[in-house]
Write a structure and sequence with these properties.
657 residues, alpha+beta, Rossmann fold, eight-stranded mixed β-sheet, five-stranded mixed β-sheet, 36 strands, 37% strand, serine-type endopeptidase activity, signal, AB_hydrolase_fold, hydrolase, Peptidase_S9_cat
Length: 657
């Protein structure tokens, strides 16, 4: 499979290296094979966000090797670097080509907005031009663009001559400055600093816009918070015509793309199988036909679209990604690829418009994450995201399932230490995912791999409420925070202990976001199960969280309705929320607690961990609090990821032998 391209060595040569002083492993952990240095897991992958140009002749990627943060562009035909840009001053979320010469940089910056209190995560799109070697912001507040908004990074279409980008934004309303409309503007790509031209003023409740192949408005999506109405409208002869309307507390059908014939929008909805599928919403008469993409055993997780959001196919949810396309030839090709490498996770990262060249990210047995190009029926190795890891140092991940105490089947992942062959029960880490409507994948999880490298069995249950395993599995989590969702974790520990796979006296629970809540709930509501708990950006007080959502989404009741439904099955009284909030039951805690939180977390406020720390200190409990400076919710910086892992390493090895 591995055919080394001429530019593979070039990728290494342009990487900016510096020496790393690795920490010595703990004296408590000794093994025949040397421990992989902690930094190898803690640092961000060396190469990420790789994309291919429309011609297939250029690659762009983010290089974070050795403390640097560089956008690098490679010409594959010449095997040379043709562009580079220092990204250290911005938090980069995504890179992609608009053309052979133009690259979009999606970024999030935490900053103050003039005229508004506090600091906010503000998303922005920058355009990097390889011809001029200049970077310019595509949309800037002012000049008709409302100043008080946090999302200015979306591109919904390109003009047919590739001269303009169509971008949605809140537009200034001189008559009512506090009620801007969400409209559509177009930005000149060769001079993005020029005042953008308004294409459609939109409404206060517009959500999205779709254009046809002639750069004309095709449809728009709205949600009326006052009437709880989800609305899709087609644009005919200068008039909007409703083609879909539903009364719902929050949107449960997604509109995310256009069919190749431009006659329908692609709508996600739950099929009879209980899994999410994709249908055609016909713009002519509003009829819903299909499903066009559906499976009995998996939900659709995402669409494969071009810049104009014309749909080519879908990606299905699951421990390993799988795909389906409109094009039957592509279906046959991907079926052959899957059969050839059944144990590897093959993620389609990017592709050229003609599908002649595709870029894959591969994870699997002995593969910590590698990029491959596929062209003319052959895979060619491009780069490793973690070149410091050898194949034998990647710990194996296996799929298993078990029955919860009420009979529900819970899928799960187990990561086993590769260097331990003993049949003795292992110390274990319970690692619930965030979301909670999310799921883990059979890939290289940096935290799970770190724990396994230290001799722990890592358990990742897809507890009830997890997404990707059917609607019934999701709905069984409604109102079960701190209850049956927690029981699902306990039942995994119990079963594996009975099987002799883990030592029930050496189990720690570690999680982030909702997983952080589950970690605190585990220590609170099942204090005899875990010997320690680690909460990263986790929730301790559900009432506080919901109150914050109400304050910050005063005009978006649908968001609050969703959280009330998820947490309490729609019955979110103060008394109920207190009953499942770890902070109100902290007296039950016996295990040591480690709290880690980013001080600019916009998803879960740091106050959650601060209050929990104060409460545990007041009660005389053993607790440590680590504040991550200038870090948000997702541990996106090398420094803070390493700080997090060092804190966990010290804490875990102090409390689980």
């Amino acid at each position: 499979m591995r055919h080394i391209l001429l530019f593979a060595s070039l990728l290494a040569s342009v990487t900016l290296h510096a020496s790393v002083a690795y920490a010595q492993p703990s004296d408590q952990l000794t093994a025949v094979t040397p421990l992989v240095p902690l930094e190898v897991f803690g640092y961000l992958p060396a190469k990420t966000m790789m994309k291919i140009s429309p011609s297939g002749q250029r690659l762009v990627y983010r290089d974070t090797s050795r403390g640097k943060d560089i956008l690098t562009v490679i010409d594959l035909t010449k095997s040379e670097v043709i562009g580079a840009l220092d990204l250290s001053s911005i938090r980069t979320d995504e890179l992609y080509f608009l053309s052979e010469q133009q690259i979009v940089i999606r970024s999030t910056q935490h900053r103050r907005i003039r005229g508004y209190s506090g600091s906010h995560d503000v998303s922005t799109a920058f355009l990097f031009d390889l011809n001029t070697n200049k970077i310019q912001q595509m949309l800037t507040p002012g000049k008709g663009i409302h100043k008080g908004q946090t999302g200015l990074g979306d591109i919904v279409a390109l003009s047919s001559d590739l001269a303009w980008a169509y971008m949605p934004a809140f537009l200034s309303n001189e008559r009512n400055p506090n009620s801007p409309s969400y409209g559509l503007v177009r930005v000149k790509l060769d001079s993005p600093k020029r005042t953008p031209r308004a294409v459609h003023k939109g409404t206060v409740n517009s959500l999205d816009f779709f254009l046809d192949q002639n750069d004309q408005l095709l449809a728009r999506e709205r949600y009326d918070e006052y009437r709880n109405r989800h609305i899709v409208e087609a644009y005919d002869d200068g008039q909007w015509r409703t083609v879909y309307e539903e009364t719902t507390d929050y949107i449960n059908k997604g509109i995310a793309g256009i069919t190749p014939d431009y006659k329908a929008l692609v709508m996600s909805a739950v099929a009879e199988s209980g899994h999410r599928a994709y249908y055609r919403l016909e713009l002519a008469d509003g009829s819903i036909t299909g499903p066009i993409f559906s499976r009995q055993d998996a939900s659709v997780a995402g669409l494969l679209t071009d810049t104009d959001r014309v749909v080519a196919g879908v990606r299905y949810a699951g421990f390993q990604p799988s795909y389906e396309f409109f094009d039957t030839k592509l279906n046959k090709l991907f079926s052959a690829i899957t059969k050839a490498m059944p144990d590897d996770s093959m993620t389609l990262v990017d592709y050229t418009p003609d599908w002649r060249t595709m870029l894959f990210y591969v994870e699997g047995m002995g593969i910590p994450g590698e990029y491959y190009l596929f062209s003319d029926g052959e895979f060619t190795f491009v780069a490793s995201s973690r070149p410091q890891l050898k194949a034998e140092q990647v710990n194996p991940v296996e799929v298993f399932s078990y029955q919860a105490r009420d009979g529900l089947t819970i899928p799960a992942l187990l990561t086993r230490p590769a260097h331990i062959e003993s049949s003795q029960p292992l110390p274990a880490i319970m690692m619930p995912h965030g979301g909670p409507e999310s799921y883990d994948r059979k890939g290289f999880d940096w935290l799970a791999q770190y724990f396994a490298s230290r001799g722990f069995l890592v358990i990742q249950p897809q507890f009830r409420g997890s997404w990707g395993f059917g609607l019934e599995h999701v709905l069984k989590g409604r109102g079960e925070w701190g209850k049956k969702m927690q029981d699902d974790l306990t039942d995994a520990v119990t079963l594996l202990a009975q099987q002799g796979q883990l030592d029930a006296n050496r189990v720690c629970i570690v999680g982030a976001s909702y997983g952080g809540y589950a970690a605190l709930a585990g220590a609170t509501f099942t204090p005899d199960v875990y010997q320690c708990a680690v909460s990263i950006n986790g929730i301790a007080d559900l009432e506080m969280m919901l109150d914050r959502e109400k304050r910050e989404n005063r005009r978006r009741d649908s968001i609050v309705a969703y959280w009330e439904d998820a947490m309490a099955n729609g019955k979110a009284s103060d008394e109920y929320l207190e009953s499942v909030s770890p902070i109100h039951h902290a007296t039950n805690i016996n295990a040591p607690i480690l709290l880690i939180h980013g001080n600019i977390d916009e998803v879960v406020d740091i106050e959650q961990s601060e209050d929990m720390y104060k409460k545990l200190k007041k009660l005389g409990k053993e607790v440590t609090f680590v504040e991550l400076d200038d870090e948000g919710h997702y541990l996106s910086k090398n420094e803070t990821r390493l700080q997090t892992l060092k804190a966990i390493d010290s804490f875990i090895h102090s409390h689980v032998n």
